Amino acid sequence: MRARGIMASWTRHAFASSVVVGLACVALKFLAWLPFRDAITRDVHSGASDQFAAAPNGPLEIAWLLIENGWIVPLVEGFLFFVVVWWLFLGLKLKGRVGASLYFVILGVLSWAAHGAGLNNVGHGLAFALLAAWFWAVAQARGGWVAFATNVVAHGVWNMTLILVWLVRNGA
User: Fold this and answer.
1) Residue 43 binned pLDDT confidence (cut-offs 50, 70, 90)
2) pTM above 0.85, yes or no
3) Burial of 102: CB neighbours in 10 Å, binned 0-12, 13-18, 19+
């Protein structure tokens, strides 16, 4: 099943499109957070992860925060979530719309659960479902390893944008 329509164009320019997908994940995270903002405690930092409770001290800590959460975490999570589940789907021969739908739902729920399974993590689940859709489309058009690489780029853009928003908001 090849990507059609707009996705065919997006997968042709997969790495550039990954930046847009990453920014869409940021938007999903914030939009999903808005309806629950009064029910969520203020330590969520407007959609940023709880791990940023203390501001980093100095430029080296900021650089490490960006490297760790912008590239290392997306590499590890990308492999564990997207590639391993992809291999499972290939082994089970789950393809087409049914396979794609299951892939989106499973990855959305897995990531929501892995990131805390709370109201403030609904955006994570939705954004990971978007990353799953992106991975699926690129994998169909360009192969699994290109899909993995573009997914790491999109996830890195998402994480680094949230970190930079948090740093600007908290004056770090």
Assistant:
1) very low
2) no
3) middle
